[in-house]
Amino acid sequence: MTPYANLTDPELLLLIRGSNYSAFDELYERHWLSVYNVAYKRLKDRDLSKEIVQEIFVDIWNKRTIKNISDLLPYLHTAVRYKIYTLLSKNRTLPHFVEPFEAMALSSYNADSDLKKEELEHILNNWLKTL
């Protein structure tokens, strides 16, 4: 057990502002899995989820003197969602379920196209709610 294990998140963040590596390590160990799980739940991609976790914690360290994080868990979960939105908007990589949506959306007009459109809208709305 490290001497930092008994400190609260705000106490750790205060130490991190002073460039305390051990406090940062404790904060990372305490929360990386939660951040990873939020990313993986949405992306279903282990490597991409790990990359997002790394980017978020690197950002916390790099901006430690200017960021004022008052409530860490909501901050981390919001950061995950922001990274995922950014990833999707840059079209860097799309989750495996996006391609079928594109194929359905681009299909030519036929007798059941209105039904496909309604089904596609329903699926997309449900997917967006999960993000």
Quick tags:
mainly alpha; 131 residues; single chain
Shape: elongated
Percentage of β-strand residues? under 5%
Q: How many separate helices? A: 6
Average the pLDDT over all residues and give the rounded result.
Answer: 81
What quaternary form is this?
single chain
Largest beta-sheet details: none
Give the CA-CA distance, first to last residue: 36 Å
Provide the structure class. Answer: mainly alpha
User: What is the total tally of β strands?
Assistant: 0
| Low confidence ranges | none
Q: Secondary-structure element sequence? A: HHHHHH
Radius of gyration: 20 Å
Q: Residue share in helices?
A: over 70%
Structure description:
The two termini are 36 Å apart. The chain contains six helices and no strands. It is mainly alpha-helical and 131 residues long.
How would you summarize what this structure contains?
The chain is mainly alpha-helical. 73% of the residues lie in helices and 0% in strands.
List the helices and strands and how they pair.
Elements: H1 9-17, H2 21-43, H3 46-62, H4 72-90, H5 98-106, H6 113-130
